[in-house]
Design brief:
single chain; 218 residues; alpha/beta; Rossmann fold; five-stranded parallel β-sheet; three-stranded antiparallel β-sheet; globular; binds adenosine-5'-diphosphate; binds zinc ion
């Protein structure tokens, strides 16, 4: 199963990709996570990406596309993968199509999580992340048992530098300008399923497994 998740920041792509990758035993490839890891490890790529990310701008295609195509070589993608946060503009989408064609594999379905701005802003501004295992919490919707501490591993919870109201606005603008047109791109390829990103994550998961089930049977 090979899936692309599209949707604005805060649509719940990461949460849904986590659940789906567990369920189908496929790799979860989140470009934001990959880039944050590079930044944390202070690699050459991380140093180049850092300022763009802090400002809520896209990291240049020349860096991101190479990173993703390399990641797709990893054996854990054999059974399939779910792309979360990539592609983010038309050039990335075209390069992805070309890269997959070279590998003789195809995307089964692109899912667009249509999400209201009100939900997005509430989710992003309350989001907290574990420094060790990257589990995602929300101070109101999904609070940890002990404030500031990860339930899963005891790690420290932090707020992403780009989860402040000013950078959230910038990220939404970039999404509208660069990423939103991908909805039509994938609609044109007849591979788009539109779901609501506003609903509860478990309900959404249930709906998506039904859609994928039909897709596999077809
Ligand atoms: P969100 O979807 O909540 O904005 P991500 O974790 O997906 O968060 O991305 C965080 C940041 O990482 C983006 O604002 C951007 O700077 C960078 N980034 C992630 N994916 C890409 C991509 N495909 N192309 C360019 N930059 C990216
Ligand atoms: Zn943790």
């Amino acid at each position: 199963m090979r899936i692309i998740l599209l949707g604005p920041p805060g649509a719940g792509k990461g949460t849904q990709a986590d659940i789906l990758s567990d369920h189908y035993n496929i790799a979860h490839i989140a470009t934001g996570d990959l880039l944050r890891e590079e930044v944390d490890n202070d690699t050459a790529l991380g140093q180049k990406a850092k300022e763009y990310m802090r400002k809520g701008e896209l990291v240049p295609d020349s860096l991101v596309i190479k990173m993703v195509l390399k990641r797709l070589e990893n054996p854990d993608t054999k059974n399939g993968f779910i792309l979360d946060g990539f592609p983010r503009n038309i050039n990335q989408a075209r390069e992805l199509s070309a890269g997959l064609k070279d590998k003789k594999i195809e995307i089964d379905l692109t899912v667009y999580l249509e999400t209201s701005e009100e939900v997005i802003i509430k989710r992003l501004s309350g989001r907290r992340i574990c420094r060790s295992c990257r589990a995602v919490y929300h101070i109101v919707n999904v609070p940890p048992k002990v404030e500031g501490v990860c339930d899963r591993c005891g790690g420290e919870l932090y707020q992403r530098v780009d989860d402040n109201s000013q950078t959230i606005k910038k990220r939404l603008m970039v999404y509208e300008q660069e990423t939103a047109s991908l909805i039509d791109f994938y609609k044109g390829l007849d591979k788009l399923y539109v779901a609501s990103g506003d609903i509860d994550a478990q309900q959404l998961f249930h709906n998506l497994t039904e859609v994928f089930g039909k897709k596999i049977a077809a």
